[in-house]
């Protein structure tokens, strides 16, 4: 290596060994970075590279942006060399809504060539050095920025140094369009933040065939927009529809989502859930005419449910008994008698318990099935002019009972169809009779028929055939 006449190969060797990866105006390369020999109030460093270098170039190194602040007089000793200074701020400039960010060197003092010393700028003024490029050329006088919790206004533009723009700024007042949080001056002058709100809230109820007028509020950066153009959409026009003026009409029972959106900006929107209800007029009627059943028997409760006079199909109805010890009722309305007594059976809508009807049910003992019969007791013969007594015994299902009685009669049917009285009834009670035979001798050996008819059921009779005998 010739130290007095270095060549490019020698410098390449040094770059490979001690160089750093950097970006010059966004292009990757390598360079030697070293500190200045003279102490400075700035973070300045020497940069040497084989890549062409000019004053004002932007360097990306060690996580920072730097600007070449020294003049670079071409290539010397096969390389380019200059002084770069660290940018201490990123400044956002607003070009009519187009935000550009520039790395900048911001300072509050300047170097006085005559005295060789730094002079502090008046309070409220700063200098800003940025790269001179196609974007920064658009900066104009009175353009504003926000930095260090203050607003600043450009009052001077110095382009005497090649590749650099030096801006003179003075402190300015904040304006209503400034975005202090994001340090963007005049942001809201060009940017719009729209917010649309449906004043009726998140949900509303209307009746079928009724209407509801929506009211909306559209703001731009917090300021109400007069007469905004709004587009309305219903998620289900079969449930409810909405016209261009925001008037909702209930069509059928159910729910639908109404969306109000700024015309031309569909992302600026709000929604409301509309619940359309029907004005119901339910009537539940139990149709059973009678409600008496025996213990152990069942009775199906029948009913109808109407809504505005129209029968409701498959209604959800529940049934209850006022006393399950007397009668029970299942989920289908089947009533079962349990013991003697009277209960109230209630049928009511499951979701509208105020809609109901009742049925009084009487439970009684199981009726006994009677099978009555009669037996006549007494002799089978009677003599002329003789008086005899006969008794009747009453049975129910073959068991003798004492709560029945009968009426007595005598017949004497002949083969020719005529009736002759061979005896007469002298007296009778419900279970006994006294009869007297005729005294006519011609009736000897004739027969008469003694009949006892059950008083509680005249279809039940008993008869006894009695023969008339002579006295001797």
From TrEMBL:
Residue stretches in coiled coil: none
Residue ranges of every copy of the BIG2 domain listed in the record: 192-272, 284-359
Matches recorded under InterPro entries: Big_2 (IPR003343), Invasin/intimin_cell_adhesion (IPR008964)
Pfam families (alphabetical): Big_2
Superkingdom field: Bacteria
Protein name per UniProt: Ig domain protein, group 2 domain protein
UniProt organism field: Desulforamulus reducens (strain ATCC BAA-1160 / DSM 100696 / MI-1) (Desulfotomaculum reducens)
